[in-house]
Design a protein that fits this description.
The chain has ten helices and nine strands. Strands 1, 2, 3, 4, 5, 6, 7, 8 and 9 form a nine-stranded mixed sheet that branches. The protein starts with a strand and ends with a helix. The chain is globular. It has two domains: 207 residues, Alpha-Beta Complex (Spore Coat Polysaccharide Biosynthesis Protein SpsA, Chain A), CATH 3.90.550; 87 residues, no CATH class. It has 315 residues and is α/β, with parallel strands linked by helices.
Length: 315
């Protein structure tokens, strides 16, 4: 039987969290799923733990990368393999609520959405706390009298994490949407393209995803640490969003404005994370930031000029 949902889980050195993650998938109330586990060359017991689930449930399948390429590559492997009508991405240190797949799937089918966004929370000291940047966006849309978020894009784009969502597989494949590989912040470039290619995007106002804040300082997630590469890669993400706009604006002029918004938002975040550079890279990071802001200014100015010029031509 063809699965309705493919759950794609990139794995890298998450032995402490992986069993809980996979248990949350194993016990989903929606059972017509396949679970694609892609290990990105872990050096701990992650593969062994994953194999235990493969052995106990035929819906679980394990694929091994020969070298570490970051979370983008395992997700791309999963997209290529996926047989489900819909795709859900799950990080291997996080977990799903028990009815996550069921709620997301039925909402996606009912609304014919290209993708659906649910709520994400963190469980800490027995208390549920919403992930603020996602919750704020969802509240904005909840207050707007619309169903399809694409009908009123002035309320902000949804950029960032590819999780807490369900995607129509054909939508990703037909538009050839994949993740950048061997880059930090790959989810920003992916979500920017997904947003701008989608025609129907809806919100499911239920908690579907539980995020984990790693407390092991020797094995933090890539969103909790900042190396020089993590800063340098932000140049590449800006360039990817800029090039997408240049390639596609003739089909939809508003992409230029959305590109400006996305790059400005991304730069605001860059300013917020710069102080977290460790002492050994702080001088280099400060020098890089000056050049990064020049790149941002140049790309934004070009997009704004293109928009104004083409708007005048179309009057």
């Amino acid at each position: 039987m063809t699965p309705k949902i493919s759950i794609i889980i990139p794995i890298y050195n998450t032995e402490k969290y992986l069993a809980k993650c996979l248990e949350s998938v194993l016990h989903q109330t929606f059972t017509n799923i396949e679970v694609i586990l892609v290990d990105d060359k872990s050096i701990d017991r992650s593969v062994e733990i994953a194999q235990e689930f493969v052995n106990k449930d035929k819906r679980f399948k394990l694929f091994l990368h020969e070298k570490n390429l970051g979370p983008g590559a395992p997700r791309n492997t999963g997209i290529k393999i996926a047989k489900g009508e819909y795709i859900v991405f799950l990080d291997s240190d996080d977990y799903l609520t028990m009815d996550s797949c069921e709620m997301l799937y039925h909402h996606a089918v009912k609304t014919n959405s290209d993708f659906v966004i649910g709520r994400m929370h963190v469980l800490s000291n027995g208390k549920l706390t919403p992930v603020e940047y996602i919750e704020t966006r969802l509240q904005n849309y909840a207050l707007s009298p619309i169903v399809n978020l694409k009908d009123n894009e002035e309320l902000n784009q949804f950029l960032g994490s590819p999780v807490n969502r369900i995607y129509r597989t054909a939508f990703l494949v037909e538009n050839k949407i994949t993740f950048p590989e061997n880059l930090y912040w790959e989810d920003v470039a992916f979500s920017f393209e997904v947003w701008n290619q989608a025609k129907i995007v809806t919100v499911l106002p239920l908690i579907v995803y539980m995020r984990t804040i790693r407390e092991d300082e020797n094995n933090t997630s890539i969103t909790q640490t900042y190396s020089m590469k993590s800063y340098l890669d932000r140049d590449k993400i800006v360039e990817l969003m800029y090039k997408f706009c240049i390639k596609n604006y003739r089909k939809n002029l508003s992409i230029l404005k959305k590109g400006v918004f996305a790059i400005k938002s991304f730069t605001d975040t860059t300013r917020q994370i710069l102080p977290f550079a460790t002492a050994n890279i702080k001088p280099e990071a400060d020098v890089w930031m000056v050049q990064h802001l020049k790149l941002v200014e140049k790309r934004i100015k070009h997009l704004e000029n293109l928009h104004d010029w083409n708007r005048i031509r179309r009057i």
